[in-house]
Design brief:
This is F-box domain-containing protein. Pfam families: F-box-like. Strand 1 and strand 2 form a beta hairpin. The longest helix is centred in the first third of the chain and has 17 residues. The radius of gyration is 22 Å and the shape is elongated. The strands form 3 sheets. The chain has a two-stranded antiparallel sheet with strand order 1-2. A two-stranded antiparallel ribbon has the order 3-6. The chain has 2 domains: 62 residues, no CATH class; 56 residues, no CATH class. It has 6 helices and 6 strands, in the order H-H-H-H-H-E-E-H-E-E-E-E. By secondary structure, the protein is α+β, with helices and mostly antiparallel strands.
Length: 127
Amino acid sequence: MEAKRAPAAAAAVISAVLDDDDLLGEILLRLAFPTSLVRAALVCKRWLLHAAAPAFLRRFRGLHPPSLLGFYVVTTCTHPPRFVALPQPPELADVVRRVSFDLDSLGPDRFDLDCWNGLLLLPTFEM
């Protein structure tokens, strides 16, 4: 009889925590990566509403600034820069592996790379 009560008691405690919107918001804020937040938002509509709220997203971005995924190396002015990925935690390593950062599709034009506010500025021009 004692064994049957333990799971029921644990379920009641978990339900009490996850039914509290303030606690749920604090738990979601402590997820380490945006990819984890997206997965959590897929649990149910209530979690999605919390994760998509503008005030929540501002707090999340304040606690978890963007991380540097890698950098571009320019070898010559006639070849596109090459992206060099930095070591990432497993949650981000999979994303970096699946995404193409190659700039080859922009053609053999000369590239002038610059960055501003964490954005890659890539003006191309004809020679």
